[in-house]
Amino acid sequence: MKNILIIGSTGQIGSELAMKLRSIYGGSNVVAGYIPGAEPKGELAESGPAEVVDITNAQQIADVVKKYNVDTIYNLAALLSAVAENKPMLAWHIGINGLLNTLEVARENKCAVFTPSSIGSFGPNAPKDGTPQDTIQQPRTMYGVTKVSGELLSNYYALKFGVDTRSVRFPGLISYVTPPGGGTTDYAVDIYYSAVKGEKFVCPIKAGTFMDMMYMPDALRAAIEIMEADPTKLQHRNSFNIASMSFDPEIIYESIQKYIPDFEMVYEVDALRQGIADSWPNRLDDTCARMEWGWKPEYDLDSMTRDMIEKLSKRFKG
Ligand code: SER
User: Fold this and answer.
1) How far apart are CA 237 and CA 234, in angstroms?
2) What domains does the chain contain, in order, with CATH numbers?
3) Mean pLDDT computed over 274-294
4) What does pTM read for this prediction?
5) d(CA 190, CA 206)
6) Ligand 1 center from residue 119 Cα (angstroms)
7) Relative to the CA of 119, which ligand 1 atom is closest?
8) Average pLDDT of the residues in 260-270
9) What is the pLDDT of residues 229-264, one digit of tens each?
10) What separation in Å is there between the alpha carbon of 66 and the centre of ligand 1?
11) One of 34, 68, 74, 143 is an active-site residue; which one?
12) How does strand 211-215 pair with strand 201-203?
């Protein structure tokens, strides 16, 4: 039986991962860690314990780990790429000092740790198409710098201290539940909200800019399956390329137009986000994840579009 702490449980990934983990391991075995001002609400608040856990405060992490006898930590605290460019010191503090706190607590209390990496861990000199699992990682963003450093630090703790660290490099994640805040791939979420609300979408990313994307149910499954994987089969740890779809704004627009034919999109390119997107891969090669722990996505662009439109329509049209 697992006793899990989620750090960052009210964010874009945490809010859904917490509910999914509770459905598998039981509500009382999954502690929702949050920072003041981002308290859990609704189902998340009612379905299990919640505690204040600021990742920059090692003592708070240690206290909660001891109180609930935690054996697995999902570390989802981070600033997304565009915000991190505006607040680089804070991005480093959360992404690296926070991770170091988490790894130290994990070492002392024998916990496994999941810390997501990202397509943003690659820079412009990595192969763009079919980006290999093991290749040059020289990102030009603070977000990417914290992700590569986090991968290295997590691997170091595994090799040196035997801490069971594992992770995946997430693509842009698309969901109808909790919106992302300040990422480069956010447009691929916002576009569905505009379409369903009957609004014209102003796209901040240029036509022809390809990035890896994934529907949230596949991402949640990846986070759980990697932590459940047979460790003797893992040749890599931090962090596995995973992929399911890659598209540019034109392709996602056309996929939505099949269901909402009068949907309109115009471009107003955001220089910061475009610069970041241009430095990232077009499409990762996820062969190692498939071979080492059986990774396989379930959603493609069309099935994701159908589900997003159905779920958001229910919410906005009653
Ligand atoms: N979704 C993230 C971002 O755009 C990428 O991992 O910042």
Assistant:
1) 7
2) 4-171+216-223 (3.40.50.720), 172-213+243-317 (3.40.50.720)
3) 98
4) 0.96
5) 15
6) 8
7) 6
8) 97
9) 999 999 999 999 999 999 999 999 999 999 999 999
10) 32
11) 143
12) unpaired
